[in-house]
Amino acid sequence: MKKYFSFFKMHFVCGLQYRMASLSALTTQFFWGLMECLAYRALLESSPAGLPMDYQALVSYIWLKEAFLVLFNTWAADKEFFSVIVDGGIAYEMCRPVSIYDMWFARNIGGRMATAVLKCIPLLLVAFLVPKPFRMSAPVSFGAFLLFVVTMLLGAGVTAAFCMVVYMLSFFTISPQGWRMLLTGAVDFLSGNVIPLPFIPQPYRTVMELLPFGSMQNVPFRIYSGDLAGSEIPAAIGLQLFWLCVLILCGKMICQRAQRRVVVQGG
User: How many helices and strands, by DSSP H and E, does the chain display?
Assistant: First the structure.
């Protein structure tokens, strides 16, 4: 376990070095979040039936989504993993006395958390200072905040485990671009990154919440804002744990199969 924590630590520290790159992206994410708040405000004022989410809860959801974008996105995959598969560098990875899956999983989580730490603090500070009604609200309760932290870690684990499945499937293709475009493109919509899942009509919403994508950012952000409460929370956490175990198991099985069949050509 100690060696995998070392991989996590090295990737985390390495990610912290790119401070200016992270800060330069904050302007884009701030204005994108502000535009979303304005768009939903216009929708609220033009809709006599209102919105399926409380507007202040929706504003908090949007700012959290922008602050922790790198923690839950699947399209910004680690290109290093794909490159070692394509160019034969996997031979060196297989020589290490460690599990390739566990090593890559630790590095994946470390890189995501490093970038998230650099981006979330300044963006959330600004989100709490903008004028109402676009200002981010505090958690509905201290208990909700603790559940938010727990479910966010679980959601990040589910996201990383899903990305690991994509990495492992790349062993069986000539180019990884096909898997990335097909799988990661759909996740943005199915996880609530494009439109929060409460805006999806039934019964499609129920199906999307049962899929692993609904256990990513959808659960922690809605718990923080109070949109997800009561008996729904234990069920949501149970689903997160279920999909985390299932995706890790699938990834490990694909990895073992790939290692038995991998062929590296060249000198």
Answer: 13, 0
Residues with Cβ within 8 Å of residue 181, at least 6 apart in sequence: none
Specify the pLDDT at position 150: 94
Residue 267 has pLDDT above 50, yes or no: no
For 3, how many CA atoms within 13 A lie in the half-sphere containing its CB? 8
Rounded to whole angstroms, the Cα distance separating 184 from 167 reads 11
pLDDT digits (tens, 9 = 90+) for 175-192: 767 767 777 778 888 888
Kindly write down the DSSP assignment for every residue of 24-87, as one continuous string: HHHHHHHHHHHHHHHHHHHHHHH-TT--SS-HHHHHHHHHHHHHTHHHH-SSS--HHHHHHHHS
Question: Within 13 Å of residue 54, how many CA atoms lie on the same side as its CB?
Answer: 13
Assign residue 201 a region: left if phi > 0, alpha if psi is -120 to 50, beta otherwise? beta
pLDDT confidence tier of residue 195, bands split at 50, 70 and 90: confident
Round to whole Å and give the CA distance between 134 and 63.
9
Query: How large is the C-alpha radius of gyration of the chain?
Result: 20
Q: What is the pTM of this model?
A: 0.86
Q: Among all chains, which residue has been given the structure tokens 């958390």?
A: 113
